[in-house]
Amino acid sequence: MSYNKPRFEVADIIRGYRHALEEKGKLTGQQKKVFTNLAQCRTAALGYHKDQCDNPQCRYIHVSYNSCRDRHCPKCNGIKREKWVCMREEDLLPVKYFHVVFTVTDKVNPLFLTQPVKMYNLLFSSAWETIRKFGLDHKHLGAQTGMIAVLHTWGQNIALHPHVHCIIPAGGITKNGKWRNTRQKGKYLFPVKALSKVFRGIFCDGLIALNKKGEINLEQKFDPQKKYLHPFYKKKWVVYAKLPMHNPMQVVNYIGRYTHRIAISNHRIRDISQGRIKFSWFNYRRSKASVMELPAEDFLLRFSLHVLPHGYMKIRHYGILSSRKKSVALNLARESLKAEPPASKKGMSWQELFIILYGRDPSTCPVCKKGKMVVIESVYPKSRGSPRERLQPNYHFLQQ
What we know:
The protein is of the alpha+beta class. Helix content is 33%, strand content 20%.
């Protein structure tokens, strides 16, 4: 795997144009914090560590600036994603998996802006309750299934578009502790039209409940006896189910594409000039790739919509894949399927993952290719509670 440094970065846009949004009071405290992290990522503001080759004939010195490690950062999620994927490999079953996407009508977007935590929680719970109901129904499965759900809040044009990507095994565990495949031996999950209607009903019931508690404010109230007359019912709610994935490793790689993705990657930014931003996007309605141009303020305002509330969990596990149940449930499933558990990769360091991903040892000197790069000095930002003095744990080799 190779890496090409992008020409432009989200951080460049933040550093150049965030002040306009701040002057107008359009950024929350959390959004300002995230913008600061992204702007300072891998710059002198966050400190650095200096490495030197331990080969006496080389002594090459390299300075690396520290990362911000913010989950919204386009540069800081690669290793996190791979570590998460390795952990999920241990939960894989030798069955097919479905990728299901739950979306809501754009008429609900104002509620997501005013009450993001409550609305995102409702989106998660409605998606799982829909899958759980269909799974327990004997007409469809008659077993308890599981789900890994990942929240995305954007579309390709980085406008607000809340939806959850779900990975669901093609089957479940019956009351007798046996594995049961979905219809047609796992080739078919549940009817998507029926899923859409049930999902819409569960979500709207949740809106009614939140409105009664005073936690949200619906401009137009629901008539419980005639919910179908509400504007939220005028548009179809889309639930999309892709064809099943047969190879377990394909499932793992597929999950990894969605878990730590952010609203836009640096590689999609084509140009930054004269206060305008050009970026590539794919129009799914027309099945056409194109370039969109926005004023820098509008671009940052759209990007800020996808800054999640502090500490909010965007990846969740349900049913037989939940933390509470999976140890017992997966053992029952493997026993029924006569399958061995995958090899554990717990405790794997980031250096080991780096070797797997890029095919080289990150500690090898890039100049002589023989020596090892050893940290000889570390400087940390004062604001993060660490002193700015030099740390020299490996200076001993310089005396050789």
